Amino acid sequence: KSEDLQIAIDGPSASGKSTIAKRLAERLAIVYLDTGAMYRALTWAALKEEIDANNEKAVTELASALKIHFEADDSKQQVFVDNENVTNAIRRDEITRAVSAYSAIKTVRDIMVDKQRLIAKQTTGIVMDGRDIGTVVLPDADLKIYLTATPQARARRRYAENNEKGYSTESLATLEKDIKARDNYDMQREQSPLKQASDAIVIDSSDMDLNAVENRIIEEIEKL
Ligand code: CDP
Ligand code: CDP
User: Fold this and answer.
1) Which atom of ligand 1 is nearest to the CA of 39?
2) Which of 79, 95, 124, 180 lies at 20 to 30 Å from 170 by C-alpha?
3) ipTM given for this complex
4) Which Gene Ontology terms of cellular component type are present (predicted)?
């Protein structure tokens, strides 16, 4: 039954994971969990408390005490730390640049993965997007998608998105450089690096629009 499905979507930044995951959640009436937002929320709290990523003990304590929760709004999911709405704050450039360093810490990942698995256990159907969902968080997911696109295509998407939303934006060239740097960091780290699960379906969306990607995934769901 589609409402019982567990779907894992992994891939690099701006490959379309969160947009596609939200569409699937709506279409299949299942829960969406943005695991990147959890690492961003932790990074937001650490920067606020001035806890350096090198101070692993303090970051770990912060991560285990951190109360992150999501609230579904009509238009978008809101992210809260304690009772503060951090939905917009966690998307800021300073967070984006710092998040990989905090998310590379093993003890932090263990805590986040536990929280993610607990959420999956408490719901029936769920779609999660991140870097390690198919490999670590939900190794028994019914469907695993590895969504990717060239760094150029991804930089163009972020650029268009920033302009569309009226955010200040780096140049296209800088966005591409930042994307490559974060890809490297996320793929080279020792703990749960970004990589394809052996049983994941790879979709290169460089030349696909969102509808094409969604339809491709629906085809796979129908095969289950
Ligand atoms: O939206 P974008 O792809 O730029 O990033 P995100 O999904 O919000 O994730 C931000 C960062 O969190 C990533 O660059 C990873 O370093 C980390 N992350 C992770 O390590 N594991 C996950 N499951 C999700 C995110
Ligand atoms: O979650 P992730 O960082 O992987 O990517 P996203 O935030 O879902 O997508 C980044 C931007 O690219 C969004 O503005 C999407 O609408 C856009 N996008 C697109 O135009 N075509 C695709 N095939 C995928 C994403």
Assistant:
1) 12
2) 79
3) 0.97
4) cytosol
